[in-house]
């Protein structure tokens, strides 16, 4: 966890069902089910391999619900961000030749025309 209370989750490629590498501390805190796999270059991807080496206590989980995400290389992270996603156009649009996009989330608007929202 960073000084700002942010945890990093690194999504695997489709060969690991887009599982996420996170710190064990977060998995335990959220009671997320840990799955058994160690990422490899062609099963997980280079981002997961690097994160696995850098994380304090890395584990894999299949699903999370994140508040926001940064997609590097068009890996389709939307399945792991809360339901109402808002695209964010980052200033840095490429990283090492990979396309960069971002998502943030907001609460759902419910209730129809009679409801009021902030």
Automatic annotation (TrEMBL):
SUPFAM superfamilies: TTHA0583/YokD-like. It comes from the Bacteria. InterPro entries: Antibiotic_NAT-like, DUF436. Transmembrane segments: none annotated. Belongs to the UPF0340 family. This is UPF0340 protein RU87_GL000595. It comes from Pseudolactococcus plantarum.
């Amino acid at each position: 966890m960073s000084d700002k209370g942010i945890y990093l989750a690194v999504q695997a490629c489709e060969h690991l069902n887009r599982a996420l590498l996170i710190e064990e501390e977060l998995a335990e805190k959220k009671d997320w089910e840990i799955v058994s796999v160690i990422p490899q270059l062609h099963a997980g991807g280079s981002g997961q391999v690097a994160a696995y080496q850098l994380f304090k206590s890395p584990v894999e989980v299949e699903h999370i619900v994140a508040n926001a995400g940064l997609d590097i290389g068009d890996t389709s992270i939307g399945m792991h961000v809360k339901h109402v996603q808002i695209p964010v156009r980052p200033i840095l649009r490429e990283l090492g030749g990979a396309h960069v996009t971002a998502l943030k989330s907001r609460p759902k608007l419910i209730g129809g025309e009679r409801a009021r929202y902030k």
